[in-house]
Specification:
Length: 227
Amino acid sequence: MKVAVAGAGKVGRFLAEELALGGHDVLLLEKDPALVASLELRAGVRAVAADACEVASLQAAHVEETEVMVAVTGDDEDNLVISLLAKQEFAVPRVIARVNHPRNHWLFNDSWGVDVAVSTPQLLAGLVEEAVSVGVLVRLLQFEGGNTRLVEMTLADGSPAKGQAVSDLGLPRGASVVAVVRDGHVVVPRSDMVLDAGDEILLLASAQIEDEELLALLSAHHAGNTQ
């Protein structure tokens, strides 16, 4: 897969090399020529001195040939501009953007060409909550401009989902179980997989589905309160 990474800071360099290690063809865009000249990158990463906020620079780098654009500069305004240009001017199928300041997260949506916005503080907060909570619905990521979200819940012993097959959960349309973490192993669940207490359930759910709908099916505390 061809991936363009805009921003050769620590995050951008690490991401580019990790993607190259995974066998991807990576184009690293950085507007500081001196920084580009000083980089020593692994095979599979091609660094180019280019301002990713300018159409001409993106054209010269042939960004239209990439399948994914990842904007990870340290400036939210730049990341928004890069995302918009990648999507609208070069029709890049998948655009992922880094949110540096959580207060700006609401801007990172499909209006700016962003398919997935990643806010490290919000993600860390979700992971901390996930690590200490059982029976609590934790929002991990938002996709497609906020229209779809990835949520997680660790099933408590009294969860109404305990002992049920995935196909029998009665999830609303627009929600599906995409993975189950059991005993430290990630399992892609079959419809007949029976859930148990301690299972970490990861679901993709549309924004139209209220948390309460999912909690009613998965949370012991919620189920007890609704009886």
